[in-house]
Amino acid sequence: EAEEADGGAVSYALAKLGMSEILAENIFRPGGGTTLEARIRSWALFSSYLRTLGRGPLNYVCALLRQTDAVSGLLSVLVAHLPTPGRRAKATASPEDVVSLRDVVTNSRYLGEEDYVTRGAAAVYRSLLHLMPASVGSWFTEIKNRQMISDIEKYTSVNETPRLIGLELETISSRGDLEVVALHNKSQVVTRYRKDDSTLELVIKLPGSFPLRPVEVEFTSTFGFGEAVLRKWLLSMRSFLRNQDGTIDDAIYMWYQNVEKQFEGVEECPICYSIIQPSDHTLPKLKCRTCGNKFHSSCMFKWFSQGKATCPMCRSLW
């Protein structure tokens, strides 16, 4: 299945993104003959391209990447070359020597092989933290080696997290009935949602090793809303923050749209428990003829891809 997903990703990259075959192969399924320098340069070029995409296309490409092992495979290689505490003595470059993606692509500083790998790995790692924080966090939770966990977390919390949190908080904005305030000194985001006479205040706390560790979400004021609704909204916010690559502001806006749609009477997809699908921003439209439940097309595609041919809810033949 992973091989099929990687192959589909390569085909998509060639057809839709206009990538060269060599670049697509280096990104999605590098072979044994692909050098580390080539992988780093390819990802630096690819990351530079991703930065030019709008939020919708970027979300789609990130969702595609998450169906493959491209990101996790790359990260597992990169971390062995980061100037982490565990290998600082061996590294010729320090964490402060991170170069730009453009420098990595062109090697404009004429770095030697070892310096290029160390600085290039740090630059690509930084770009992935920014572009695909949820994917990096998901990869981090799968690491079993305690020393590696400690080294990566220390490196990230000191060299990347403060900068990343600053960028995240700068993007925060209010919309409609949703007031959003960034508390820079606390690394927190406070959201206040007002509907008629009801008020909801929710606090998002970014951890010291963001995005490796999950953010904390809690309600601090819940006047006028039922417990069942609050529990559902809390779970949906946590889900958006944990599973969707993008900014904190993107997740908040997605959550806000879901809440608004719920007030409009739109029911959530029983598979992902969301009204608006995080990857393609669609509504549940595929309706079971037996039970009447509606599902997202992408959620049902994943369901059918597992060899199932029944409704996820009533189990009748689809």
TrEMBL record:
Principal location: cytoplasm
Keywords tagged on the record: Cytoplasm, Metal-binding, Repeat, Transferase, Ubl conjugation pathway, Zinc, Zinc-finger
Protein EC: 2.3.2.27
Catalytically driven reaction(s): S-ubiquitinyl-[E2 ubiquitin-conjugating enzyme]-L-cysteine + [acceptor protein]-L-lysine = [E2 ubiquitin-conjugating enzyme]-L-cysteine + N(6)-ubiquitinyl-[acceptor protein]-L-lysine
Subcellular location: Cytoplasm, Cytosol
GO molecular function: ribosomal large subunit binding; ubiquitin protein ligase activity; zinc ion binding
UniProt GO cellular component terms: cytosol; RQC complex
Signal peptide coordinates: none
GO biological process terms, semicolon-separated: protein ubiquitination; rescue of stalled ribosome; ribosome-associated ubiquitin-dependent protein catabolic process
Pfam families on file: LTN1_E3_ligase_6th, UBC_like, zf-RING_2
Top enzyme class: transferase
Domain of life: Eukaryota
RING-type domain sequence ranges: 269-315
Pathway: Protein modification; protein ubiquitination
Subunit structure, interactors included: Component of the ribosome quality control complex (RQC).
Family per record: Belongs to the LTN1 family.
Function, as annotated: E3 ubiquitin-protein ligase. Component of the ribosome quality control complex (RQC), a ribosome-associated complex that mediates ubiquitination and extraction of incompletely synthesized nascent chains for proteasomal degradation.
Name of this chain's protein: E3 ubiquitin-protein ligase listerin
Native source species: Chloropicon roscoffensis
Lineage: Eukaryota, Viridiplantae, Chlorophyta, Chloropicophyceae, Chloropicales
